[in-house]
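Anyone else keep sequences and structure tokens together like this?

Example one:
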Amino acid sequence: MEILLIRHTQPAVEAGICYGQSDVPLAPTAAADIAGTLANIPACDVVHSSPASRCEVLARALASRDRCPLNFAPALLELNFGDWERQSWGAIPREQSDLWAEDTWVCSPPNGENERDLWARVSRWFDEDLRRSGGRQAVIAHGGSLRILRCLILGLAPEQRWARQISFGEVLPLSMNSTIG
């Protein structure tokens, strides 16, 4: 089975803002960005997407283009940054952000989740939904959830989640048990 990991296009968020699960709009260049991304995506059999509007726009365009089913999966949402959502990183108390940055796997932002929680959430969806699908699957989501999906698809350990970033609008094709990455 081929799985296309696709990150949403550029959001309209000021640099230095922590936005995680906040529903932020796309950049003014969204139409051109989405058209450029669609040009790099082969025909799909099903589209899975985070329900965040920054993912939904591209997901709907792809599902419409390919006349295929579109499934929204809350498990694909970005890391929940809790009290830090929509704050500038500079406004977050340094002792809190430094502690979190030392071990994002275990430490959580206040009222948020850690990466172990994100891994568990994405892993459940991967096992219950994505693994049971067939054909070419497109997954439109966020940097955090896509890094974890890449590890799950390739059979990599959680420690390797930061080894490969996926840029805005990038399409990363993988196969189950693939060595691409």
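And example two:
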Amino acid sequence: MPHPIGGYGTQVTNTPRSFLLSPDTANWEVGVTVSSAARDSANTPTTTLRAGLVMGIITSSKKFAQYDNSASDGSEVARGILKHQVKLLDDEGTATDGDGVLVLSAFVDEDQLIGLDSAGRSDLAHILFNDEVHTGS
């Protein structure tokens, strides 16, 4: 199991969070364990999950993986958005679970999210999307 204190266990990189439109103090976030089986299929390598990836939870393991509306393991329900990049390979290149931060409630730019579809958007009831807010006259 990954160590919850930064600097130990799997690396969590602080990458730009361009999908967040609200200040950090306005967001609801939680630390989670990301499954070593999770993948960011549009990234190279796929074992590096980018900030903004929509995540679901695998029911049997209680670990998070990429949201997939066609899955049947629990990850077919979008639960939140990965706040920072997470690398799932250790220094020897072995797949390992990672430590991540999941954004559960925030004001976000939908165009910056990875893997979001209409069903996932419906699942994310605590997320406010930029097209839902009138910002001009």
